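Journal club side-thread
Mid-discussion, someone asked how the predicted structure for our own chain would compare to the paper's figures. Pasting it here so we can look after the session.
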Amino acid sequence: MPTPPIKLRLLPLVMVLFFTVSGGAYGLEDLVSASGPGMALLLIIITPLIWSLPVALMVSELSAALPEEGGYYVWVKTALSPYWGFQVAWWSWLMSFVDMAIYPVLFANYLSTLFIEYADWHYLSEHAWAHWGVTLLVIWPLAALNIRGAVMVGLASRWFGGIVLLPFAVLSVIGIYHWSLNPAAVWQPWIPESTNVLQSFGVGLFVVMWNYMGWDIIANVAGEIEQPQRNLPRALALTIPLIMVAYLFPVFAGLTSGYDWQQWTSGSFPKIASAVAGEWLGVWLGLAALVSSAGLFNALLLSFSRIPFVLANDAYLPKQLTYIHKRYQTPYIAILVCACIYSLFSLSAFASLIVVDVVLYAAVIMLEYAALITLRLKQPELPRPFKVGGGWWGVLLICILPLAILLLAIISTVEAEGAQAVIISLAALATGPLIYPYFNKKRLLSLSTNGH
């Protein structure tokens, strides 16, 4: 009989959650140039309060009440119906096809930039197949690591986290030290001259919310976490301030560098770090960006691969997806299938499909909140080791803030992308209801054949 696998403990869980949501301050550069230095710093501080904290509280209550593998699939299926459980799982998995391909592509892009910057070698940028080959060198070793189990993913995340956070910490210390010797209002101007406060806030909120997104995804591996009813809420409580600090200090330190804030664009942190402390720190941050991309893919693969696994367990998908590795006790077929899908999607970055991500994620979060409310109404006696305080007013508050932000994000994205984006988004949403009758018929036939 195989030995039960060791489960994720608190510290590795925090680092897995860190990479599920963040991966460092990379990507925040656009926030500064779009919203201005002062508004950028303000948004980094308040977004966790109006976006991350409400979602984390919802996740904490639901994962404490139903600490099972499959996370939000189990919550929604239990609270609403198998139909809606299938929808939330399918939409989330569909969203991952694009999202998960981005990180290996980012790794290849960062590597190509480093080669061009410091070796004048353009091979990866000029040869698409070589570029794709690099993405596969990210995907498949990390898929192999995932097959070895959640604990190995947690151990790798601890190392990845140290490698990513250390150069940002050095940047922060040097930048803030220099600022302390010659204090200046680096948060000025608060907003760009060409915008007003409301526009600056709205644009910046849209940028920063994606850097604080993904708190619910970790619940998919609740069955592989040691004491999930206790450790998941604790990990969420620890990771929110960790990520806020990991964003706030590097951005503040970068603003002390004298590097024109209007020139901050995605990928600028190595240049900003060079302006703060010299080229050595810029190179270090550039190398850490590679690790950040790998860490994001590694942690997210752990969670997203459990979606086809739990759907197959309920007989919606082929039973082969339920196969467990004899030695590592992991759903290795589900992991391999996900790796194949992400390998195909990494042939293109699909950046134009960001609107689909916004709409699908909004639908997933709405169903999770519906599950929270429905379980409170239908199963008030359900044990809840963690419960959102404030009664129904507390529940209402943690629902309204994130849903309002998501509505703003959808409107902003649709305005930017146009009518075609709406059609693509609705088509993506429609795939769930369209395919459900087929997969449900297959499930019912399987259950009747097996005598259930």
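Post-session note: The first helix runs from residue 10 to 21.
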